[in-house]
Amino acid sequence: MGRVSLAVLFALAMLVPVLGRAIPAAAQASTVSFSTAEAAPADSVAYLVTTLNDESEQWRLADVLIDRAGFGDALDQARAEEMTDESGEALPLDAFLGGEIGVVLDAAALDTLAAESMGAADLEAMLGSMGMATPEAAPAALAAQGFAAVLDARAPDTAWTGIRDSIVDGAFEESTYEGTQIYFKPAAGPDEEGMAAARAGDLILIGLTPMDLHPIIDTVDGRSEAITTLPEFSTARDALPQEFLMFGFANNAAVMNADLGPFAMAAGDDAAAFSALTISASEPGFRMETVGFAAEGETLPAGVANFESDLVNLAPAETLLFMSAADLGATGVLDAIGAGALALAFGMGGMGETPDPSASAEEFIAGQYEAAAALIGINLQTDLFQQLSGEYGAWLAAGPAGDNVSGLFASDAADPEAVSNSLMQLSFLIQGAMGAEAPLTTREVDGGQIYVIELGDEAGSTFEFGVAGDRFVLGSGDAIDRLAGTGEGSLADDTLFQSVMDTLPVERSGLFYIDLEQAIPLGEVAAEQSGDLALGGFDTAPDASESCGTYATQEEAQTAYDAAESGTFDLDQDFDGQVCEDFFVSAETPAAGTDDAASAMDATEVLADVDYSAIKAFGLAAYEDGGLQRSSSILYISE
Hints:
- The protein has a 20-stranded antiparallel β-sheet, sandwiched between helices.
- The chain is globular.
- The chain has 20 helices and 20 strands.
- 33% of the residues are buried.
- It has 3 domains: 3-134 and 144-292, no CATH class; 311-522 and 614-637, no CATH class; 535-608, no CATH class.
- Helix 12 (333-346) packs across helix 13 (361-376).
- By secondary structure, the chain is an alpha+beta fold.
């Protein structure tokens, strides 16, 4: 039960209503006691708790929604087949329910994610196969991974006995930290994780290493402050619904300032320092509410004011996906993306020059555009990107079979003439790159000039960009024409869209909508065409290089690879450090067609028979409320 198992436990916690399909008629309140929060250190990066109260109104509603969504029978079948131990005896799941389960992430989790995001293990494996591995250091002490789960169960004695026995059944280690006994099962192999567990009163603590449990034990014993002592934690609880299936709280600044390698995020001045969410069940569907706010005693800069969308009245009624927000140019997103592209195009040093180490990010970005302007004749930052103010949005529409796809992106422009002039200059560059054989033509839409690029397919499709009225636009021709009022019907008048929007706040600063009644069938068609079942995933390349045949066994191939012998470079096809995993099939490996070999397909096959027709749509509304950044969303499930 390593990191993957904890992730499964986490996922089960989000879907715990499926474990108890018989809900008592007399439902109780679902609000958790936050007993697990009392065990989470105040400096935790994130904390998430899920109610395990199977007698609550929230579980009853979730159970109803699961049935309406079409998953009830499939989950009942899966539960009947899987919820047993190795001897076939029913697992005492009831003992684990009744309370709550919390997941705690501390700063060590960010280090773990950073190492994984940078692919350190894969890089070392590749270097090793090339004979360039770094010298092997002495084994380091087992470091904390930063992940822990805290369980407050209905029958803690029974639950603890089951968890402890699963650890001591085999090789295990036992230690004591500040008077608390910790049981630890080390990882059985290089691709597995260990499991540590301890009992603290009625709470059961589970982590990947004993070190992961030390901060939790310190908090339970009162040697360190709990997350519940933070004023921001109280702010989050008060700002969100009190009845829920799940509650989450995060220190955004800690996460966004972490060094996550290529996935690093820079926390902007307007980023909320803390955020929280709840997921709950309601009659129309599953809801999620979020809130973002500043640290205690501070305020967030003024955000985008709530507004009424004009684009929703222009999008076609059959729109598959729609989004709308405001002031794209002010976010700096386009500035950063464009500057990165220019740096790559003209040299990582910034147009071929060494960047000034004392320059701010804003100064570096501005310098990229100023240097590029000398070459292309326009400053894309000031003449195009920063002109995009007011509402911006996009929509996508498609036919029943995924054909006749059309879409549009549009943004109001502060100075439409400046944007038009910039696009004219860009059109010259595009035409030069395309050559005379693929001319760039123009047409007029709503008083503005639109540039047309023929895509050369049988349908005569085009990609177009330009200015229509006071908007910068790009997309397909028929979608752009709607901006001039030529289309019939609109998304705003669609019955399903209206039903979903009626469940969300009326005042909005942003909107996202996806018509799942259309999207799910299209996804199923795409999956069938790709050879997957239902909404299946991706196949990984087999780790079975022809060079594996040089060796008699996988162990022999592994020894040669670890020694970086000549000709072992391609033995590890998936770069996980383990060679020829799919080449040597041992007697213990179940043959194709056996129950074990087919078990991986069971879940996919069960889901293939699910009727998704009641899952109608997903809608999200962002809005400003009293200095708080909020959003409200719903997965809409029909009766």
